[in-house]
Amino acid sequence: MSFSNLPAVGNYTYPTAVSPDTGKSIPQTKPLRTICNDYKSLFRNQYTAIANKLLQELNGILGLTGGNALSVSMNDTTFNVTMPTTWPNASLGDRVCQEGNKAYKYYLQEVVGDLKTFCEYIEAAGKTFKELGELRGNIDDQAHVLLDKLQCYDQLCGEMVKEFSKHFKYNMDSDTWEEACDAIGSSSPYNLNSQLTGTYTSLDALRKINVTCINSSGPTSKEINTFNELSKLDKLKFIRLYYNLILNNNQPQTVFPDDLKTGYPCLPNEVSTSGTEDTKELGALELFYIGYLIDRDGPINALSSFLEIKTQALRKNISLMMDKIEALNQCLTFINRGLDLLNASQSGGEKKNRIPDAAHVALVLFCDGVVRGLKELTINGKKERYFVLQSSTTTANGYSLTESGKYLLVKADTTGLNALLGTSITGNGNSATSNGCEHRISFVCENSPEANTSDSNVIESSSAYTIYNGFSWTGYFSYGIRDCKNLGTILLANFSSWNSDVVKDWLPKEISVDRVLRDSVLGYNGSWVQSGSVDANMASSWTTAFTNKSEYINTAIESINNDVSTMRTKIDTFDSASSTFRNRAHDTYSGIVGRIGG
Amino acid sequence: MNLYDAYKEPGESTMDELRKLDERLKLLQKRFAASKTGNVKDSLLTPENLKSTIGLLRTINPGEKNMVRTLETLIPLAGESDEALSHLDSKKASTAHHRKPVCTPFTKQLKCKLPQNRLI
After folding, report:
1. Considering only CA atoms, which of A171, A203, A199, A169 is closest in space to residue A288?
2. Rg (CA), chain B
3. Is A578 helix (H, G, I), strand (E, B) or coil?
4. Which tens digit of pLDDT belongs to each residue from B36-57?
5. Distance (Å, whole) CA A109 – CA A561
6. Nearest CA-CA distance, residue B83 and chain A, Å
7. Residues of B with Cβ-Cβ distance to A314 under 8 angstroms
8. Nearest to A427 by CA among A413, A414, A441
9. What residues contact residue A502 under an 8 Å CB cut-off, 6+ apart?
10. C-alpha–C-alpha distance, residues B29 and B26, integer Å
11. Average predicted confidence (pLDDT) for chain A
12. For chain B, first and last CA: distance in Å?
């Protein structure tokens, strides 16, 4: 676009500039063509360059390359850049705790929103230049209107640049953070003043950034905990780096409570990285999460928000503890059903050649199996909780994963109990044949469901796993009720990769309950199909196994009780702090109102 | 022998204790939520009051940058309904400064609002 039709001579007085020294407007008297060229140079050489530099930074943070990379140009075509508002790699986003994800998206949307607006201003300026180039005839009045528009876009772009260059610098002399907004002049249009420079190989390094500080003896650097003082882009970069370190370098993602769906990013006093131990205490919230609360709710509400979140975290932890106790209590009912049916099977002479399948399943899955918390799934729009069971265990990184990648999900209520154990007192025991109970469990858990899902439906699926319902289960449990087609009572989760982080994140944590080894039970390996093979000693051994497991469950509940005591102490502290805090908050607000003068 | 009846008591009493703790936490949460500005008497939160506050803060406490910034974001919302004010933590506050390009001819009114701090 050129302005050849505009007069190259003559004088227009137009307030095109503000003196950076005096802050006063300098009326400029120039030919119209010169003024237009000044503006064009400004938008093309400064604002477009700065916007592209910002987009380039965003591309770097989000890992956008090639055709996905974002850029803007000032031309005559319609500007159309699709800005991402979530993790470019969805599977990565799934593995970030939900609260951390919220913080990330908050800053992503803010940065994207601002950049999009910035680019729209540049595009609008481009259109105005085109209109200026097309002016004909008596152009004075029309040109003036268009120049007014350009001045408006110029001011708005200037505000955007200020938004992105604003950060805080630590003054070592006064121990305060001072707002800094380094000028982006024509000589250094690419200086974005990032404080997050260098390579971060650990979360600890990221938590203590080496920043340039103000010092009377000259600029110096210092390692310091900082987040809120960073620029807008740096905040986004910080969170992205934080999760990149976790996801790419297998660093622990610690949340409290210990559940990626409900937990808050924190630095617990005792870090748990195993699949068996929970993070016991809340500890400190991560710096970036506190920063997010401050930005989201405003500094004036920061303390309220902070304590509110901590209280919420404790409530969510209570919910997890209740789930664990519910899991343990339900576990008791399943073991009890096994014992009931065992006793019933021994009450009539002709039945003594059988240990019921139900007792066998209870022994293998509940007494010797891994006990986990309950898994919540949504079935037909309704939330249901399930035991996650496995036929055999293999330990990988302390998570007790199955090498088949398959887990049996049984609804943790009476319908699940009836579907899995039923009420039958018959059974084939642990015979080596395909009718053997354990063989059948193993077959389902380790070889199915591929061959047996013709009549099943998929409850939930992702690239990492599929959860089936209603697979052909009755063929393997020919005795008893086993109404597995009764929607949602027994499901099967099948992971494509058994030892992946997805499995570890998906599985509920184990509850430490001592096992009763199946081999320790008399007659476990016996063949019970012959008449009279179950004697009093054998029945007693099974009864002892079920009773012992119930004792171990009680011990686990006692352990949870100790955690409850610790939590009660913390809540007492919060309770007393809340009164003090309310007074302080009230004083602060009253102070502001007082300064207004009523 | 019924194992469930014999062993259910510790679990049930722990559940009771947890429910009580949850109730206490629920009350605490309410207290903290009540401390937020969104719940403070909002008749005081007028644009004029906020502007005066910002002016005063800048004079008597220039270091209070964060507070000033927060109050500035409240100004466009201060004239709105109580409902809007009770959601000051929403995206609205954070995106209040996002303005669409103004494509009308130059107006003095707009010019007054824009910071004149840039050198062409």
Report:
1. A203
2. 25
3. helix
4. 655 444 455 567 766 766 765 5
5. 43
6. 16
7. 21, 25
8. A441
9. A95, A462, A464, A465, A495
10. 5
11. 78
12. 90
Return the bridge partners of A223, or none: A210
> Number of helices and strands (H, E) in chain B?
6, 0
Helix (H, G, I), strand (E, B) or coil at A410: strand
pLDDT surpasses 90 at A237:
yes
Q: What is the mean pLDDT of chain B?
A: 59
CA-to-CA separations, A473 to A359, A360, A444, in angstroms, rounded: 18, 17, 8
- Flag whether residue A554 sits within 8 Å of chain B, measured between CB atoms: yes
CA distance A314 to B27: 13
State what percent of residues in chain A have pLDDT above 70: 74
Encoding tokens for residue A209?
A: 């950034």
**Single pTM value for the model:** 0.71
Cβ atoms of B99 and A160 closer than 8 Å: no
CA distance A243 to A62: 12
Block residue for tokens 């270091």:
B63
CB B18 to CB A321 under 8 A? Answer: yes
Q: What pLDDT, in 10s, does the model give residues A165-195?
A: 888 888 888 777 777 776 554 444 445 667 8
* CA–CA dist A203, A216 (Å, integer): 31
**CA Rg value for chain A:** 34
User: Please, what is the Cα angle at A371 between A504 and A545, to 5 degrees?
Assistant: 150
Q: What is the DSSP letter of A274?
A: S
Q: What number of helices (H) and strands (E) belong to chain A?
A: 14, 15
Q: Which residue has the tokens 């009164």?
A: A579
Which residues of A fall within a CB distance of 8 Å from B95?
110, 113
Contact (Cβ atoms closer than 8 angstroms) between residue A31 and residue A10: yes
Token digits of residue A137: 């005839």
Cβ neighbourhood burial of B118 (10 Å; 0-12, 13-18, 19+): buried
With beta carbons under 8 A apart, name residues in chain A contacting B78: none
